[in-house]
């Protein structure tokens, strides 16, 4: 299923309130106020509509940073035909502090290759991936709320401070202890159906919005830290709140309009390209040559492509709407699979515009 293949948010919310079993295994709700995701048949008290995010797969829920509900057990829903899935997920729920390794799985009498294959088929992730995501999410929640690195390390289940610092360091490009405790530029997380995004903002502008697994992210954060003279650290501003609200509306199929003030970090030419990207309507795409002609530089196709690749505010500056001259998808820092899903999803906006 692609994004927006699900019904609209109002329909899904009505199904949630009615505990409609017809969506079993096809739709899930992530509750932003609690960080939990559920089946639509969950007996728990229903969240407010504005606190709901809708997903079409379990892996999307997990990659967006949500944890499974302990009342409706959504991770067991597709595991009914696989006893090993039920057994491992129950073990994970029973001991969330456990640091899982392959040896632990083997000790339970399971074949590692079988476990890997079954989990990938059912969830799009391995069992160890699921366990690591949950641990790392808990650690970043502590850091995001102003907690100490040692507390975040322990919450994430890392017995070694160096291992936790190494994992965070690979993601952020610097050890968490070196981040500013009184930052000018604040790092926060935004969960989306396509995975977690890292957002950097000050009190007035958004400086960066990237998918957390983008390879260039550490280098980009280092550049921002240098420009801010080291005043980069965890925190949350009003810009983060507004960005999340508008990103949620975008993925809910409600609006592709963004009004967040953006801070550009690039040359005058690069900024000109980024401005041009923002004029491409959702649901349409252009080639690099088209974009070069649009800014009055028809022979600068390669330079336009480089500027497109240098964009560090994903989705809001829609570099995913630029494709090859032959109509093929070309490089995208967040991964071609995300580019494909974004373009497919935005056709909804094109249809609305035509209507």
From TrEMBL:
Signal peptide: none annotated. It holds the Pfam family DNA_binding_1. It comes from the Bacteria. The keyword Hydrolase does not apply. Keywords: Activator, DNA damage, DNA repair, Methyltransferase, Transferase. This is Trifunctional transcriptional activator/DNA repair protein Ada/methylated-DNA--[protein]-cysteine S-methyltransferase. Residues 113-182 form the HTH araC/xylS-type domain. It comes from Celeribacter arenosi. SUPFAM superfamilies: Ada DNA repair protein, N-terminal domain (N-Ada 10), Methylated DNA-protein cysteine methyltransferase domain, Methylated DNA-protein cysteine methyltransferase, C-terminal domain. It catalyses: a 4-O-methyl-thymidine in DNA + L-cysteinyl-[protein] = a thymidine in DNA + S-methyl-L-cysteinyl-[protein]; a 6-O-methyl-2'-deoxyguanosine in DNA + L-cysteinyl-[protein] = S-methyl-L-cysteinyl-[protein] + a 2'-deoxyguanosine in DNA. Coiled coil: none annotated.
């Amino acid at each position: 299923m692609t994004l927006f293949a699900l019904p609209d948010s109002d329909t899904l919310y009505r199904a949630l309130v009615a505990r409609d079993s017809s969506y079993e295994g096809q739709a899930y709700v992530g509750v932003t106020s609690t960080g939990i995701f559920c089946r639509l048949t969950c007996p728990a008290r229903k969240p407010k509509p504005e606190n709901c995010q809708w997903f079409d797969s379990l892996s999307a829920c997990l990659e967006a940073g949500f944890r499974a509900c302990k009342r409706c057990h959504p991770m067991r829903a597709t595991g009914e035909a696989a006893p090993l899935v039920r057994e491992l997920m129950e073990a994970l729920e029973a001991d969330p502090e456990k640091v899982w390794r392959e040896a632990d799985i083997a000790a339970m009498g399971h074949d590692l290759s079988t476990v890997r294959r079954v989990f990938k088929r059912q969830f799009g992730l391995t069992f160890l991936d699921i366990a690591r995501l949950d641990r790392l999410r808990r650690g970043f929640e502590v850091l995001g709320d102003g907690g100490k690195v040692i507390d975040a390390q322990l919450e994430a289940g890392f017995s070694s401070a160096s291992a936790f610092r190494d994992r965070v360091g690979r993601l952020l490009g610097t050890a968490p202890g070196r981040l500013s405790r009184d930052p000018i530029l604040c790092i926060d997380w935004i969960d989306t159906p396509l995975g977690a995004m890292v957002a950097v903002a000050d009190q007035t502008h958004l400086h960066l919005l990237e998918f957390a697994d983008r390879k260039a992210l550490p280098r980009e954060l280092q550049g921002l830290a240098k420009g801010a003279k080291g005043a980069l650290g965890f925190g949350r501003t009003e810009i983060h709140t507004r960005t999340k609200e508008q990103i949620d509306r975008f993925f809910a199929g409600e609006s592709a309009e963004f009004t967040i003030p953006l801070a550009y970090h690039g040359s005058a030419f690069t900024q000109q390209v980024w401005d041009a990207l923002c004029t491409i309507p959702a649901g349409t795409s252009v080639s690099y040559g088209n974009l070069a002609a649009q800014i009055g530089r028809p022979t600068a196709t390669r330079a336009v492509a480089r500027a497109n690749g240098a964009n560090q505010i994903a989705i809001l500056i829609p570099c995913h709407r630029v494709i090859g001259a032959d109509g093929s998808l070309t490089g995208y820092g967040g991964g071609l699979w995300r580019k494909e899903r974004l373009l497919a999803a935005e056709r909804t906006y094109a249809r609305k515009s035509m209507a």
